[in-house]
Amino acid sequence: MLDLFQAQFYHRSKHRQRYFNVFKKLAVVQADAEKRDTVLHNMYRTGEPEFNHGNCYSAWLLRIILHTLLEYVMLGLENELYATHELHYVFVYVEYLLGWLGACLLQSDKIRQQTEVQVAKQQSKAKGKKKKEQKKKASEIAARGRGREQELLFVQAQQCLARGLLKMIEGLRLEGHLPQPKFEFGSEKSRFEHRFKALGMFETPGHMSYGHYLSQFSPDATSLQLYEEAMQPLNKSKQILDNTPVSDEQQVVMKVVKTNLVVARLLASGHKKDQKIEVSFDFSTHRYYPIVRVS
After folding, report:
1. What is the DSSP-derived secondary structure letter of residue 292?
2. Residue ranges in the chain assigned as alpha helix (H)
3. Residue 251 in 3-state DSSP?
4. Phi, psi of 238 (to 5 degrees)
5. How open is the CA angle 181-13-201, to the nearest 5 degrees?
6. Per-residue pLDDT tens for 47-99?
7. φ/ψ of residue 197, rounded to 5
8. What is the pTM (predicted TM-score) of this model?
9. Shortest CA distance to 240 belongs to which of 223, 228, 227, 257?
10. Exposed, middle or buried: residue 272 (CB in 10 Å: 0-12, 13-18, 19+)?
């Protein structure tokens, strides 16, 4: 954990280099956390059977790992390390990690709720507990719960945005608007595996295989179908952000979502389908999620 903390003091362009060593140490800590969870689970089952430990250490560490993996992938976008034809690899992996993060947050919240119920029962039995203190504690718990709910919704909104982007990019690729490499001395599979090799050190989350990447796209899908499929998650992302308290970052993400939704709707209508268009990915609004521009 000290290496992860120290990595934050390096220049942003150096973070990815530092993270490779951090990953190796986090993988060791993850294995140790699983063992400790097993020991504690057995201990509580024997001494306090009504108390559910719930893999607290593993869940806490998994959240840290997922945030670190996401930052590793996103830093490649920020530092312009990916070629244009690799962006659909990136957003498939981003969506995959955000899905894991959302599931992890749900599991953590479930563990929290169970623990708070058990603690509340124990405290209610204690003598001299004042009602005023109980109400204050209940309001604090409710406030923490709302904060976690908002975090989960923002993760889900970003996941939908990533899915919409990868569908748009794949549609543009099918129409020949994006430059494609000639794999004379390699293959797309080897390029994909090379890009994300460092992320395969952890047992959880599992490393995304090239086959999993291919399964995200129907081989018979047309570009217009992909644009229509992109509109669905973008619409969902917009709805989530519309119904949650908006922070500065959420406002920026909302702008990216709305603009890309307009572009996806335009492309789905067949606009300039048979014409040669120029496509660019504008990261000036948000450093991780681009606005797709066509002209």
Report:
1. E
2. 2-7, 15-47, 56-78, 87-125, 131-174, 188-195, 210-214, 223-242, 248-268
3. helix
4. -65, -40
5. 70
6. 666 566 667 788 888 999 999 999 999 999 988 889 888 998 899 999 999 99
7. -60, -40
8. 0.85
9. 257
10. middle
